[in-house]
Amino acid sequence: MPAILDVLNKYNDEELMKLKSELEAGNATIALDDGRTFTLNKDLVTVERKTFKQSVREFTPNVIEPSFGIGRILYSLLEHSYWRREQDVARGVLSFPTCVAPTKVLLVPISANTAFLPLIKEISAKLRAAGISARVDDSSATIGKRYSRNDELGTPYGITIDFASVSKNTVTLRERDTTDQRIGSVDDVISVVADLVSGNIDWVQACRKLPAYDGVQAVD
After folding, report:
1. What is the 8-class DSSP label of residue 104?
2. Do 108 and 146 form a contact (C-beta atoms < 8 A)?
C-alpha cells in the first residue's frame, strides 16, 4: 500500500530499528497521516541493515546563476539610437554619440574624378594624424544615397569634396542628425572635427566657427 510505504520511507534509523525489534517480537503497528493504523508482521515487512559500496555518486546541482550577455546590451544601444527621418521614413539614422561611433568622418568626393585623389589623400592623412577615424566612399551612387547609407552606419560627420575644393582648398562639413552643412578651409574643418570628436565643442558651437553652406561653391 503506497501510504504505508510513504510512512516507512520517512522513518529514521532509530525508528527503523524499533520497528525491527517489534517485528521480531511479533507484530508492529504503524499510524498513517490520516489517523488510520495498520498492523504489520515479518511476512509483510523486513528490516535489514546492509552496507553498500558506492563508487559513483551522481547528483544534479541546483544553481542560481544570474547572468546576461553583452549582445543584449549592444542591441539595446542600437535600438535606442536608431530612428527614421520624418520627411522620408525609408532613411534610417543610427545616432551614435561621436565618442562611440566606430568611424567619425566619411569623405565623399562628388565623383570618381582623379583630380580629387591628391586632396582626398591629404585630408585622410591629416585626419589620421589627428587620431580621427575616417573612410572614403567613392562609389558611383549619388551623394545623397552615400550619405544616407552612412547615416545608418552611425557615421556622425561627412566631408564633401568637389571641384571647388580642388581650386579653393575648401570643403563642406555635414552633420548626420540635422544634415546641416558648413563650409571652410580644409584645415579649419579638420580643426572643428577634432574638437567635435574630442568633445570640446558641440555642433551648435561648431556652427559659430564655420559659415553655413548654401549648396553652391563656385569654381575659380
Report:
1. -
2. yes
